[in-house]
Amino acid sequence: MIDQLVLLAADGADYVAPKAFGLDATVWVSIAMLVFIGILVWKKVPAMIAAGLDGKIAAIRAQLAEAETLRKEAEALKAEYAAKIAGAEAEAAEMRARAEAEAATLVEKAKADATALIARRKKMAEDRIGAAEAAALAEVRGAAARAATEAAAALIAAKHDAAADKAQVDKAIKALAK
Asked: What is the C-alpha separation between 141 and 68, in angstroms, rounded?
């Protein structure tokens, strides 16, 4: 049939569409569409489509309501956790301040203890030096006394004889008698 149309178009002749019952193909297609639409309306297809769409709309509304509820819950949780975080940050800042104050107190105590220890050690060192000086002075005095005693004994032995000793013993006895 396409071949015939091509040949007719090539010959330059006017093509006339076939007609049935005096109606051309366009009218028949229009009638078929009206019948089809009538059958759809008679079987209530538009109502079923509308019901299906209404069901989908209701499902979407339910999902939107659920999403709104979930969003509100999420915002509440976010606010709760933000408050908890703020509380934790405040507590951490307070703990840090207490730790810094405690550390400062410990440093001051350590400085005071170190100063006291240095003072005690200095006093002990001064006492040891004083004791060593006293011991050295006593030793020097003892050595001087020994040297003086030895020198006196040597002088006495050199200058005194038995007669001088007898005179001194007699003098000491007379002094005791009085």
From this structure: 107
Model confidence pLDDT, tens digit, residues 114-150: 999 999 999 999 999 999 998 888 889 888 888 888 8
Q: How far apart are the C-alpha atoms of 47 and 53, rounded to whole Å? A: 10
The whole-angstrom separation of Cα 56 and Cα 1 is: 48
**Residue corresponding to tokens 């800042």:** 93
Please tell me the distance from the alpha carbon of residue 64 to that of residue 72, in angstroms, as a whole number.
Answer: 12
Say if CB 17 and CB 24 are below 8 A apart.
yes
Q: What is the DSSP letter of 178?
A: -
* Gyration radius of the chain over CA positions: 68
What's the burial of 131, exposed, middle or buried (CB within 10 Å: 0-12/13-18/19+)? exposed
What residue has token string 């038995």? 162
Give the model confidence (pLDDT) of 158-173 as tens digits: 777 777 777 778 888 8
Angle between helices 25-42 and 45-159 (to 10 degrees): 70
**Angle at 67 (CA atoms; ends 62, 71), nearest 5 degrees:** 150
Question: Which residue has 């400062």 as its token pair?
Answer: 104
Q: How far apart are CA 157 and CA 168, in angstroms?
A: 14
Question: How far from 21 is each of 15, 18, 49, 174, CA to CA, in Å?
Answer: 19, 10, 36, 196
Cβ neighbors of 16 (< 8 A, separation 6 or more) are: none
